[in-house]
Structures are given as C-alpha cells and as structure tokens.
Amino acid sequence: MRVLILGSAAGGGLPQWNCGCANCRAARERGLDRTQSTVAISADGERWILLNASPDLRQQLARHAALWPRSARGTPIRAVVLTDGEIDHTLGLLLLRENGSPLPVYAPAGVAALLRAEWPLFRVLGAYSGVEARRLPEREAVALADAAGAPLGITCTTVAVARRPPRYASATSAGPFDVGLRLRDDRTGGTLAYVPTARGVDPAVELVARAADLLLFDGTFWSDGELRALGVAAPSAREMGHLPVGDPGGSLAELPRLGAKRTVLVHINNTNPILAANSPERRALEASRIEVAEDGMEFEL
Ligand code: MLT
Ligand code: MN
Ligand code: ZN
User: Fold this and answer.
1) Is the preceding omega at residue 196 within 30 degrees of 0, hence cis?
2) Which of the ends of the chain has fewer CB neighbours closer than 10 A, N or C?
3) Residues in CB range of 211: below 8 A, 6 or more apart
4) Ligand 1 atom at shortest distance from the alpha carbon of 220
5) CA atoms within 13 A on the CB side of 62
C-alpha cells in the first residue's frame, strides 16, 4: 500500500490566517506551509482513496503527480473515507463536486447523519456530482470498492474513539462522531492505522493500532492548555477531544506500547512546539522514535 500524507496540519493549517503565534510567524517569514489534515492511499498506485477531505484539497491534489487526472475528467480518486465530520476533514468534499459521477464516501453512521442534516454537504452535493454514501459499521472489515463495486485491494475496519460531536452539532447524540481506521492491503498484508483524533490511547485505539506497520496518530496539541496559554479563549485539548502529546499520560508516553513499526504524528495544530525542529519537545519525541509528519511524506507498506 502506498500512503501519501497530503496535509499534516490540524484545522487552520500553518500559518493560520488569523494567528500570530511563534510557529505561524516563523512560517510566514520562511515561506513554510502545512496544509490541513488529509491522507491518500492506494494498493496499486493507480486507484486512490482519500482519508478525509481537507479545505486544501485542490492544492494537495495538484502537488502529487500520482493524483493527477489521466484524461479529461479522468481522476484516479475512487473513494473517500471519513473519520469524522469536522469541517477540516470534510469541507474538501465540496471541492470534488465536478466529479463525473457520484463519489463513494465511506463514513461512520453518526458522521453520515451530520452530513445530511447539521452540515448538509451530502444534500448540497446532490445537485452536483452527488455522493454515494456507504456505511462503515463499527468493528466490521469492509472491502473498499470503487463506484462500480470493484474492490480497491484495501480492507478497512473502524473503531469509535470516544469524542464529542462537532461544535456545529453540539446537541446531537447519535454517534459515532469519530473513528480510528485500520487499513490492510489485501495483497501485501501491510497495515496502516489512521487515528487523527483521539481522546486517549484506550482499548479502541489499541484495537486498530496494535503492531501496525504505520500508525498515524493525533498530534494536535503538546499540552492541554496550549491555546489558553497564548491568550486564546478556547477549550483545552482534552475538552476538544485531543490527547495532548507531552502531558502526563499523553501520547508521547502511551504510544510506544502499541508496538507500531513506525509512529508518525499528524493533524498538528500550528501552536504545537513540536513544529519547531530544534525545540526540546521535538527532541523528546525523537528520543522515543516518534516522528512528526510533513506534507508530502510517503510510505510503502
Ligand atoms: C478538531 O479536530 O477538534 C476540530 O477540527 C476543531 C475545529 O476546527 O473545530
Ligand atoms: Mn480537526
Ligand atoms: Zn499559530
């Protein structure tokens, strides 16, 4: 399986339009850029599946030749899998509206319901390409397939990771609103665990991540009070449903016991000190052999 990290940043990206934190200032001055959280995978290098669809999808697809159209309207993107209904993981669906036929979109039940009601992307897209909404029943292996039903060579198992509904639907109760994915290449047996949002390293996360060849995990915040420490009136990392990396009981301490061959943090907020290459926080990660994703990183599993 080929794995391409299209975007490594959390919502807002780096630099974030209204943020003057040290990382965002440095990014502007040095012309650095991190786009918002999305991954692309393929078993055959020809037909691709997007894991989430960020607001930066247009530029992300333009940056990778493997994702360029092969002919007039000949996109190699065959399906999208959503882990949640957050704006930074779904808005990009609108950018795929020129697709020639309804795009298969796999989503957990609670997320599909949000996209029909509170954040009605499925309804809006109905007037354009349309969406073929497909279910991702919890803890069932689903063979991902293209619009015609042809298998794409990758099997997906989802596990609900305990989180709250998105802010735009805070009163909704029917989840799951967030899942972690275990994706297995049918031919090579290579496994990718994709958990871009997680409140903890709990048994659910263990189920998808244990001994994976590659674990892409929630690296949103280093510390629980990271935003408030900058004077931003915001919930804490844990209140937002993101396990802080560096706090006691955080992912730096908890991830190594999962035994993944490689562990790479994704969905990194622009305020996170691990983005500075020479920070003590980055060195602490390196000492535990946990990597920080970059846009454009590639893996073969
Ligand atoms: C999250 O990952 O918690 C959300 O994307 C935050 C947000 O942008 O509202
Ligand atoms: Mn997010
Ligand atoms: Zn910032």
Assistant:
1) no
2) C
3) 191, 258, 259, 260, 261
4) 2
5) 6
- Which residues have C-beta within 8 Å of that of residue 31, sequence separation ≥ 6? none
**pTM, full prediction:** 0.98
DSSP string, 122-190: HHHHTTTT-EEEEE--BT--EEEE-TT--EEEEEEEEEE---PPPGGGTT------BEEEEEEETTT--
pLDDT tens sequence across 142-199: 999 999 999 999 999 999 997 789 999 998 888 899 999 999 999 999 999 999 999 9
Structure tokens at 33: 């850029």
Q: Is the CB of 88 under 6 A from ligand 1?
A: yes
Which helix (H) or strand (E) element contains residue 118? none
Residue 281 C-alpha to ligand 1 middle, in angstroms?
22
Max CA distance (Å), the chain:
53
For residue range 47-89, list pLDDT tens digits in order: 999 999 999 999 999 999 999 999 998 999 999 999 999 999 9
The ligand minimizing its distance to the Cα of 86 is 1
Q: Is 232 within 8 Å of 181 (Cβ atoms)? A: no
Ligand 1: centre distance to CA 86 (Å): 6
Per-residue tokens: 238: 């844990």
Atom of ligand 1 at shortest distance to CA of 267? Answer: 2
